[in-house]
Amino acid sequence: MRIQKIAILQIGLATLASIAALLISFYLTSPKQAVYIIKHYGLWLTLGTVLVFIFELRNPIKHLGLAEIKSALKRHGPALLLILFATGYLHLHVDRGFKILYDEYTLNSTAMNFYTDGHALVQAASHQMDGEVIAKAGFVDKRPCLFPFCVAVLHQLTGYRPSNAFWLNSGLTALLLTLLYLIVYRTCDKKYAYLSILLFTSLPLLAQNATGGGYELLNLCLIASLVLAGMRYLKSNGTEGLNLVTIIAVLLASTRYESILYTLVPVVLCGIKCLQQKQIRLTWFTSISPIALIPPLLSYAIFTSNERFIQTTNENFFSIAHLATNLKAATRYLFDLQGDFSNSALLSLVGVSALLILAVFIIRKFNLSHISRGYLTPLLAVFAIVALNTFLALTCYWGAWTDPMTARFSLPLQLFFAIAPALALCHCFKIRKLPIWPSIACIVFTVTVSSSTSIRINNETRLLITSGNHWALNWITQNVPTNKSLIISDGAIGIQLYDFPAIPITVANNMPERVLHLLDINFYDQIYVVESLVDFGDAYETMPPLGANRLSKRFALTHFAQKAFSRNSFYRISQITALHKAGPDNATLQQNLPPIGELPQDDPDAAKLYLKQALPLIPQT
């Protein structure tokens, strides 16, 4: 293998850039400094990465003229119709809304603050005057900034609306199915690509995320894009396409923290191509690209340094001891036939079978020189990371896919479940012309079994917090005026997305006098409370469920609305009317709070200063 002088310089630069990225992120930057950098510069660092991605897209699309576009539309017209129908179907049986709380709340709160002031801040509490936020408190989220950035771009283009997250995921659904079609079309043919779309559409979990406000679909789109970009790079001459593969990997690292492992894919593909050409050839951008990983690495540093994000011991968060239990739960989830989970038994059955067949095929055909420049190498490289991330998910404290909150961790693997049958039938069994009956069987399964499961999941209360907050948000937006009304709730982050001032229950409990003082000075006309409760029967008092906070008994309430979500679990919305005297067990630490006085009426500056001191935002000790 020839090693040119310029290649030595590029390899050395890449090594130095990698070392610098790790040192800056984990050793030279304290957690406090990492929070500051992400909060104030996360938006602009993400914008820079996205602009590089857009710039690198010019090469794949520069040859597309009007004639080429018309020809492609004519050639792939049936596929586009199928993608549109599949996208519509995925939105047919599941209501739009935030599904995984509080993950989706925090992502969209960051997007809201990106839009309003450019800061990567999750707004945990806020107060408004005349529709304008005059005081807020929050924290920097552990998640990288790409998804909030995309939502913020939609806010910028269309105006702020919480539903922009749902519209983004609707568009990403169609994009994901298009990318899936292109992968299978380029490795097999159109009919196999149709089958893959139909198989993936049969997954109720995909419908759940297509109608939600999370970042799973963005992650899947980038994984599929990485496969396609890798195919193009291996088939191109020289280093063409390497920059695009690299920047897509960086974008993946900027989406989910475990997706940083996909940055190994361009390294592997570049190494394979260098071995094929017997010459090391890099680009200068690839050499310095590790520097672009500093923002997601800083987000990961924030995650690992904050016990609130881990919520268990560091030693127990990832442990091989969790693998057996979680693997059993994953098997139960994937092959469930009762409709208890958001799985597709058909997709799991044919996907796992096809992956096993492909594994045998690859072992028998170990000499891959005749196909390494085609479909297999990029798919294997990306699948290896998917498998590694799946293993990590199954060794996690929260790794049981039977939990509705963690089932989404299976989505990258299930994407390959949809690809693998086409590869196995076309390249292992040499079935060049796919008969129509597999597609018909898939449609029948989707319309009957998958539709029934999606409807059941949509109508049942599988996550009390999600269902309760969704009901409370609907009631509040329909019955509570946005001006002069404060909401107290464990779901304060989500409530603020809908232009309501809100504070957590813990803040209200810590400063009850401050809360009532807001009514006394007419800063708010009404203060509402959203409570999650469990009724244990006559022998026990009503208590909040595990993980929820109980409102202090010092608050006198008038109940307005209530809805049960199971035999004894319910949400209740009340209004604060008065404050009971403090007892020996619930006295507040008034000596640590600014004194309550009269709101200055004639001096706006004095009034703002007073309110800044008096408004309850964070617990005081």
Explain how this protein is built.
- It is a single chain.
- By secondary structure, this protein is of the alpha/beta class.
- It is 57% helix and 9% strand.
- It has helices at 5-26, 31-56, 58-61, 66-75, 77-90, 103-117, 146-158, 164-187, 190-201, 204-210, 216-235, 242-253, 264-277, 284-288, 294-305, 307-310, 314-317, 323-334, 345-364, 376-394, 411-428, 437-459, 464-479, 492-496, 505-510, 512-520, 604-614, and strands spanning 122-129, 132-139, 485-489, 502-503, 526-534, 555-564, 569-579.
- The protein has a five-stranded mixed sheet. The protein has a two-stranded antiparallel ribbon with strand order 1-2.
- The radius of gyration is 27 Å and the shape is globular.
- The model has no long low-confidence stretch (mean pLDDT 90).
Give a quick precis of the structure.
The chain is an alpha/beta fold and 621 residues long.
List key phrases describing it.
single chain, about 625 residues, alpha/beta, five-stranded mixed beta sheet, two-stranded antiparallel ribbon, 27 helices, globular
Layout: helices, strands, pairs:
Blueprint: H1 5-26, H2 31-56, H3 58-61, H4 66-75, H5 77-90, H6 103-117, E1 122-129, E2 132-139, H7 146-158, H8 164-187, H9 190-201, H10 204-210, H11 216-235, H12 242-253, H13 264-277, H14 284-288, H15 294-305, H16 307-310, H17 314-317, H18 323-334, H19 345-364, H20 376-394, H21 411-428, H22 437-459, H23 464-479, E3 485-489, H24 492-496, E4 502-503, H25 505-510, H26 512-520, E5 526-534, E6 555-564, E7 569-579, H27 604-614
Parallel strand pairs: 3-4, 3-5
Antiparallel strand pairs: 1-2, 5-7, 6-7
Helix pairs in contact: 1-15, 2-12, 2-15, 5-8, 5-9, 6-7, 8-9, 8-11, 8-21, 9-21, 9-22, 10-22, 11-12, 11-13, 11-20, 12-13, 13-20, 19-21
